[in-house]
Amino acid sequence: MTLKKPFQWALLAAGAAAAVVLLRAFHVPGAVLLGPMLVAIGFALSGAGLKLKPGIFLPVQAVLGCMVASVVSWDLLGLIADHWLTVLVVNVLSIVAASVISAVFTRRGWLPGQSAIWGLSPGAASTMMMLGEQRGEDPRVIALIQYLRIVLVTLTAIAVAGLVGARGGSAAAPPATVFLSGPVSPGVLATLAGLIAAGLAAAMATRRGQAAFWVPVIVGSGLHLAHLATVQIPVVLAAVAFGFAGAYAGLRFNKQVLLACARLLPAMLLGIVLMIAACIALMWPIQRSFAGVDALTAFLAIMPGGIDAAVAVAHGMHASVPVIIAVQVMRLIVVTLLAPRMARVVSRYCEPR
Questions:
Q1: What is the pLDDT of residues 200-228, one digit of tens each?
Q2: Nearest CA among 148, 171, 173 for reference residue 314
């Protein structure tokens, strides 16, 4: 592509918007995430050379943190307290499943070195790429596995939503959207701006990108629960955040990396499919524990693709967003605490003797 960068960005934005409109016309769930992702993949594979630096993704993480805080309530905390064991166990089991699958792939040499261990984690993609690179693994291979996982999980979630989402909502389902579609008060805007700014400042001060997410979650939830401020997300802001998340994942693909890893793609896809299958098996405990929760909510809750993809697909569908966020927030905590340690244990086990 020979267009100058500003025109390329403008073309990407226009293409992403058109894709969202087209997908929404066909009632495709998660259109605001999937449309920009697919268009960005097309640009990346065409050799456009467009990239979104990780720092640009921090505001998206901050908006996502506000999104989580907006649904935190005493009822949600009671829901988590009533089902904490199930939520904890299914998330730990998802990490164990990823560890077993990656250990088999590493032992059999289906993926080079120990890239499977760091690539198949059900979350914390950037952390896994960094840790894998520190242990001498090719970060391009790990990144390709991680972002292929995000795309395939999103497509699987959309397929599940299309199959079961239209059959009716769960008994626990909230209104069809958790976002503000009408006028936004100055107070809400001020609260959002403050939380996003605090998240970005904490991330830059600590040099930990996750702070951009967790500061708005913790501070926003506290303000929300204490009735000191109202945390709500305008639907336009949510759509922009989902769009950036999709474009960020899509632009991570690279034609040179894909060509270099072409022979590894079957093994990568197999590992990701096995990981998704393991999470599908974990839907059953969620449905058993949470009364009235349907298959769509259970899958979005346990899917190894992140809160942004889960909420984007749930948006407008008859899925229980509180249940999804309860399980996915616990997933973030468990993955952050356990996944790097599990990966190190498995990598030591798989080292050649």
A1: 999 999 887 778 888 999 999 999 889 89
A2: 173
Q: What pLDDT is stored for residue 269 in this prediction? A: 92
Handedness of CA 252, 258, 260, 265 (dihedral sign): positive
- Residue ranges covered by each domain of the chain: 83-184+255-350
Separation CA 271–CA 100 (nearest Å):
11
- Are the C-beta atoms of 37 and 151 separated by less than 8 Å? yes
Tokens describing residue 208: 């930990």
HSE-up of 115 (CA within 13 Å, CB side)? 22
6-28 pLDDT, tens per residue? 888 899 999 999 998 998 888 77
What distances in angstroms separate CA 270 from CA 265, 275, 286, one per listed residue?
8, 9, 25
Tell me which long-range contacts 280-286 makes (C-beta under 8 A, separation of at least 24): 282/90, 282/93, 282/94, 285/86, 285/89, 285/90, 286/86, 286/90, 286/323, 286/327
Burial class (CB in 10 A: 0-12, 13-18, 19+), 187: exposed
Rounded-to-10 torsion of CA 238, 172, 221, 203 = -50
The tokens for 289 are: 């524990």
To the nearest 10 degrees (0 to 180), the angle between helices 139-164 and 31-45 is: 140
Cα–Cα distance measured from residue 347 to residue 115, given in angstroms and rounded to the nearest whole number: 9
With H, G, I as helix, E, B as strand and everything else as coil, classify residue 129.
Answer: helix
> Alpha-carbon distance 150 to 125, whole Å?
10
Q: What angle do CA 86, 88, 89 make, to 5 degrees?
A: 65
pTM, entire model: 0.73
Residue 180, SS3 per DSSP? strand
Residue type, 327: V
Cβ neighbours of residue 93 under 8 Å, at least 6 residues apart? 278, 282
Amino acid residing at 160: V
Q: What angle do CA 168, 172, 173 make, to 5 degrees?
A: 55
pLDDT digits (tens, 9 = 90+) for 284-301: 899 888 877 888 888 888
Tokens standing for 350? 């798989």
Cα 327 from Cα 303, distance rounded (Å)? 10
List, for the chain, all residue ranges whose pLDDT scores fall below the cut of 70: 1-3, 29, 54, 123-131, 133-134, 164-182, 306, 315-318, 351-353
Report the amino acid identity of residue 194: G
